[in-house]
């Protein structure tokens, strides 16, 4: 089960790594496209700025030329006739004046004609002043229109940038949501594996208890790196009777075993000697050395068996 879960974890890690690599590649491509779009927009914005500046300069130059022409035309007086619309108006007014003067009676004086000419001159100047103001207003309106057009284009660029940023945020949100779902799946899988491991530990403890065994923790000589061992209850009691690390306890038990074996050998040798000499006293009131040695031999064997 542990190998199966490990294989599943490795497979899941491989799939998650592949998804991460794919997401990184998609993010890099999106960032490259976004950078290219931004660079293209910046170049187009710079071109539009130069075009708008050129148009604005041309409009200002045209307005200046019109203004200069107006000033120069007013300095020549009423006798000079040019192609300007104001001069055409003046010519029309003069023709009307001549026609009217021809229809007048011969009793009109030169003073009335001079007065009417002065009135026409004043009206002409008024018309020219209005025309000049209208041209200046028109140039200002053209400048305002150009600036408003530029602001509209800037707002469009800003709107496009915000839309791209919103799309980027949506992509990042989808990626974060995908990562969150993957983390949730890993958490659920880990919780299930934890429950399985806990069940296996409970089953192990129950089996150990059924077999009458115990898990003991044995430290090293320096008191570090405690290890666990599975022993019977009797062996656990024997281990508990001796202090120290596992190596120290085993060495002590070996020493005791060697000592007991040497005593057993001595007793066996003494028994053989008594048998060979025939020293067996039956019916004697004094205790028999053979019996005493036999009792000691049995006790030593029993103690040796218990400790081993």
Automatic annotation (TrEMBL):
Domain of life per record? Eukaryota
- Coiled-coil boundaries: 35-69, 124-186, 250-277
| Keyword GTP-binding found | no
According to its UniProt entry, the protein's GO biological process terms are: regulation of DNA-templated transcription
Gene3D superfamilies linked: 1.20.5.4090
**InterPro entries, per the entry:** LRRFIP1/2
Q: Which UniProt keywords apply?
A: Coiled coil
Is the keyword Methyltransferase assigned to this protein?
A: no
**Which residues lie within the region annotated Disordered?**
1-24
**Per its UniProt record, what Pfam families does this chain match?**
LRRFIP
Its family?
Answer: Belongs to the LRRFIP family.
What this protein is called in its record is Leucine-rich repeat flightless-interacting protein 2 isoform X4
Originating species: Drosophila pseudoobscura pseudoobscura
